Structures are given as C-alpha cells and as structure tokens.
Amino acid sequence: DKMAKRILIICSIVLSLAVAVSAGESGISPQTEKEVKNFLDRQVRAFVDRDLEALMAMLAPDASVVMLGNGPDDRWVGPGQIQKAYSGQMAQYISETFKLTWTSIGAKDNIAWFAAQCLIVQTRQPKKQVTFRINWTGVLEKRKAKWLLVQSHFSFPAPEPGR
User: Model's pTM, two decimal places?
Assistant: First the structure.
C-alpha cells in the first residue's frame, strides 16, 4: 500500500539523517580513526622494538611538546627532554610486550585525541618479569598528512580496593 511505502521512505530518511548527525557529532571519520589506530600501533611497536628513532619521528618537533608521567617530577617538555625520558625508560628493561586492551579515539579537523588502557610485561633482568597496567592519553596533530604526538600522559591506575 502507498501509505506504508511512504512511511517506510520517511523512516529511512529520518534514520539516515540521524546517523549522519551522529557521525558528525562524534567528530571522527572512519579514515581518521584508522590513521590514529595505525599511529598507536606504530608507537607500541617502536616501544617493543626499543626504536628511539621511530618514537622521535612520531613526535612533534616543537619546543612545547610535552609528556607527563605518574610521578611528581615526571614532566618532560620539548623533544630533547622527551628523548632522554624514552631512553631512561628503555634502559629499565631488556624486552617488553605492550598491548592496548582498550582504546577510545576522537578527532576534529587536524587534531585527534586518544585514551588507552595497556597491559605491559617487561623482562628487567634474565628470568625476572614484571607485569603492570598503564593508562595512556595523548593528543595528535596532523601536519603534512602525518599524525604527530603533541601531548602524552602515562599513569598507573589506582590499585583495586583490597590489593
């Protein structure tokens, strides 16, 4: 019947508009989300491979780029300080696995942000492994078709009650 078809068409249009509005509100295109996930995968791979050069290539070269850690003095500003921090972190272990267990990504225009929970297993000396979780957040800026880290923060989640 004609009325049922009209209702179906109107419902389809309304649903399509709702999906389009919802996608616009999230602020991230599937392509951008894919690019940011790829960036995070490359960051993780660089840490696992202890590839300082790759990590620095993913960092904005600006004097204002910043990385924060969990401690009261864990603040590194500028590529030089961040490179020293990365080197210091890598000196603490022989090898590691680094797995993103949860990730949230947002973006608007040439800025993207992420929050991730990570599981890390480090071998610190032969036959001594340490397993821990971290929270990791960051802000990326796309420059000349390349995403660069402009702000990053690592922290340890609060222990569960009773532990």
Answer: 0.79
